[in-house]
Design brief:
CATH topology: Na+/H+ antiporter like fold
CATH class: Mainly Alpha
Number of helices: 16
Order of helices and strands: HHHHHHHHHHHHHHHH
Amino acid sequence: MESSAALELAKHTLLVFGIILGIGTFSGLLARLVKVPDVVVFLLVGMLIGPGMLGFVDIKADSTVNQLILIFGSSYILFDGGASIRLKVLKEVWITLVVIATVGVLISAAITGLAAYYLLGLPAIVALLLGATIASTDPATLVPVFKQIKIKERVAQTVMSESAFNDAMGAIITFTVLGIAMGAGEFSAADALVDLFKQSAFGIAIGGVLGYLAAVLIAHEKFNFLAEFAPVVTLMAVIGAYMGADGAHASGFMAVFVFGIMLGNVDSLGFKRSAEERHELEDYILTTALIMRMFIFILLGTQVDFGLMNQYLWAGIGVVVVFMLVARPVTVFACALPDRRAKWSFKEMLFMCWTRETGVIPGALAGMLVGMKAPGAQIIASVTFIAILMTILIQATTTKWLARKLDLLVED
């Protein structure tokens, strides 16, 4: 009896998942032994087992399976990051956070676009589109790094929060510039601001409502009848927050991040949970987030197009160097220095200049541009992959070293 095509595809997908879990587990152990963030090892292992080298795993970037993993995995990692944020810290740094997640993205996009214009010889609008694509920081990369490396609270939580909140701004700028590049419209600052406000407000509202509802169902003194099912509640709410916000044309990632903040601050909301219940939920979230990191970064590594990267390698590296060493420092100092309320020290700002990894979100934007056949999409995808590799392999691996040098590391 012959197997159906759907059954064979299901078996193949299951085999690939098993390979990723098996290799990912040993990669995580290796990362712990060599004392580097596990996302770095996952990315390198993914490049090794991908179609460009050993060919063990070949899941296309535009496949349904890959998109499902990217959306849910990034959402859950972002929820995990939100749960570690403390409201008292956000109250102290909220001005810097708002400015760097909005104006800061514009500054990064402009400087990077200027570098692409001169180094790659691109038309100005295509160069700006490249800058906008990689301007936002990536929560799926930064959250795991700061969960593994203990940095002073307000610095770590500011960078993690920025990576969540600037996602909407990065997407808005990218698609606004794309509309101009494809002749579909003209830039309107007023429309962009309204769109940003709408995406942010709806995302925060949906995440806040679902987060409060989840807190009631698992931690309220009278209505906590789902306390035993707290892990399932988090899964349902993460999916509900993302899909609800996306359906309202808001930022799904912002919604799940705010949901995580609400659930991570149940004590501040007036609810109480036993230590045992809290630890059980934390262990579940920790394990689930680890699995999501394995899948996201191993798959991201398998999808690196070496041939495409080689076409624009050296000029692309030049653009990324400007991006890392010029655009980011200018952004941080321009946005954080005027905030007298937060009173950032030079060491803190210097550390924030270095921690801005590029990862899943810019990679997804680049993939969408290729699928839409946007002007210069192949070059944009190439430079995006170079930015992902350079920032994760260089910046993520040196985060702990730099934090120790700047006296920002909190030792275990």
